[in-house]
Amino acid sequence: MRIAVVGATGRIGAKLTENLLAKGHSVKALSRGGPGLDALVAKGAEPFLGSFDTGAGELGRFFEDADAAFLMVKTIWDGDLHGHYPAVALRFFDALRDSPVKLAVSLTGMGSELSGNTGHFQGFHILDQILNRLRDINLVHLQGGWFMEDLSRWSDAIAQHDRIGWTLDPNVRAPWVAIRDIADIAAKEFDTPSDQRRSVKQLGIDYTMAEITEIIGRALGREVDYRFVDTSDREVETVFRERFGTLDRWVYDKNTAAALNDGRVKFRDDRPALSTTMEEFIQKTLRPLIENARKDGVKPETFLTWCSQR
């Protein structure tokens, strides 16, 4: 199968491209160039310069000779929080609707089935709705949970304060998934294509933040605790807006937390088995990052380290 991979040099795209090449697929790799693309070309990928996130390159030609496609949108945290996903989704639609592609695997996010003010999840909903208009393409929506790799954002907080502070209610069980598992599941979708017009697979293992900090504590050999940060606290909002971000980002993050904390965003029980547990990820990946952060000393304060010490 000839597969066009969007974001081929990213964290997920690179692993997926390597998996597909190892399985004997032909891969057309979209990237803005650089050593990452060169490495994939050396392994057999065909390069294509461009970016659906920015609109750069002759994107209308990217899918013109492909049987299948992998789609994903890069989150631009400091850019257009609300307009980026719709803009990229429309570029996908324009490039795919007259292409020979018959199967597309799209990495979306938990909560993408919901409409309304759900913060980060709202963009995934719009992405899915636009892609669903592609009449002649079988579409698999991979709903990813939080990336385990993103726990590294708290490396400094744990190193300095033995604590994670965040806006997720301590009683909420949220899904977490390792990047390599997303790449593995996506590759399997191309190995055994479904004949379903539209299907959804949810990827993640549920943990509360208290469970995660307990696992981190065991890996480090010392107690690590979780502190819930209430977004209705005006002091928290004031500090964020004055020191760490904009009002638009505050509302975006607050709506994201609310959608999880009030139970609107949650996963079903019928999910594919995943290889990477939180215990394995923390022991092999997060623990070394925390230990390095302790050696590096105090870093400039971020909102997450502020939350973890208050």
From TrEMBL:
The lineage of its organism: Bacteria, Pseudomonadati, Pseudomonadota, Betaproteobacteria, Burkholderiales. This is Nucleoside-diphosphate sugar epimerase. Keywords: NADP. Transmembrane segments: none annotated. Belongs to the NmrA-type oxidoreductase family. It comes from the Bacteria. Pfam families: NmrA. InterPro entries: NAD(P)-bd_dom_sf, NmrA-like, NmrA-like_oxidored. Residues 2-74 form the NmrA-like domain.
